[in-house]
Amino acid sequence: MWVFDNVADVRGGCLYGGSSGRIPSAKFRGVQVFSYKELEVATEKFSEANVIANNGCGVVYRGVLSDGTEAEIKRLHREGRQGERAFRMEVDLLSHLHSPYLVQLLGYCADQNHRLLIFESMLNGTLHHHLHHQPPSLNWGIRLRVALDCAKALEFLHEHTTPSVIHRDFKSSNVLLDQEFRAKVSDFGLAKTGSDKINGQISTRVLGTTGYLAPEYASTGKLTTKSDVYSYGVVLLELLTGRVPVDTKRPPGEHVLVSWALPRLTNREKVVEMVDPSLQGQYSKKDLIQVVAIAAVCVQPEAEYRPLMTDVVQSLIPLVKNLSSVCPSKNQFLKI
Description:
Helix content: 25-40%
CATH superfamily of the largest domain: Transferase(Phosphotransferase) domain 1
Number of helices: 10
CATH class of the largest domain: Mainly Alpha
Order of helices and strands: EEHEEEHEEHHEEEEEEHEHHHHH
Strand content: 5-15%
Largest sheet: 6 strands, mixed
Strand order of the largest sheet: 2-6-7-5-4-3
Number of domains: 2
CATH topology of the largest domain: Transferase(Phosphotransferase), domain 1
Distance between the termini: 32 Å
């Protein structure tokens, strides 16, 4: 049974029961069931021109629903049991979880063998794209705001739902940005519900993305909310440095972002050298030191030394508030 703190619109019941394995055509609050034909129309027959992204999980299309709503329509690859599990987990979780820091599920389609998810439109794409695949366009203020939005998303999953939800694949390509560069966390296909106990662990198959996996999870399969905290620390390092988590094109000793960064995070001179050159020095050194300290504790090799996401949120809020008040005209999107 799901229990939520500070969440008003929650519907009880499981999305799929019985032995048939089919998802019933029930309409959950705000989540609509679509036919495959409707989604064909919405995407102009899944036109290549409407493709936004194509990855291991599926293809994402830009679409317009029958009521005029712009949406992102994700057609999942047919991967057998694991693909079906990911689809069901995403529908079940996002039908129940409502937070401004999680991407909104508008509906789904389970016609015959087709599995599609319909999400709100996030016009500025992924954080990964903005950091690594185009001339970097995110200033220091936006990066701080994104860091806080992501921290609030994980805080909600870990500390405001019972049992807690472990994302298990938190990374910059699963952070989406809206038209005002506000961040929302997406892709819950690998998520697991955690133990009812604080920091309780569960054992599971090791799934996720290389470079973001907490060492204890990668080596033993023992999963806790602290595994997500580690992944969050990696994304924070991406925001700070502009580097990807694993880059074999870099010199020896610099291939793995965390291994390269950790020894430098306690040296103030080296910290400044680590900062993404595209920021061109446009940041507060005092704020930088504080964000670096957060990143350092999040990527600690020992899970017990990592903070709760609530602690991360409380550390970041003053930095974003201060940034907004110091220069509101340059940080128009930094509303808390």
